[in-house]
Design goal:
Elements (H helix, E strand, L loop, with lengths): L1 H34 L14 H9 L2 H7 L5 H18 L2
């Protein structure tokens, strides 16, 4: 009887281990896919002022994608200034 119990217990341990691996894989896939929906930050993001970063972070994914086409910091700041102006005029 103890031999059967040992086999049954080992089978349960193996099933639990398999379930944990499956759950871990599902969680990792969910995390990876949820992060990919946002376009990456512009490479010059860390050179922006606090206010400019707030404007940049408030943009939608499509707006951010357009802003990210700017290659130089002055272009990026100009585009963010335009976006800030549009946000202020639309809120009034």
């Amino acid at each position: 009887m103890s031999g059967r119990l040992k086999v049954c217990t080992m089978r349960k341990v193996a099933d639990n281990y398999t379930a944990e691996i499956i759950i871990t894989i599902v969680v990792l896939v969910m995390l990876l896919t949820s992060c990919s929906s946002e376009p990456p930050r512009h490479e010059l993001y860390y050179e922006l002022s606090v206010h400019e970063k707030e404007v940049y972070n408030s943009l939608s994914a499509k707006e951010r994608e357009n802003i990210n086409k700017n290659k130089y910091i002055y272009q990026l700041r100009n585009a963010l200034g335009d976006a800030s102006y549009e946000m202020n005029t639309n809120s009034k």
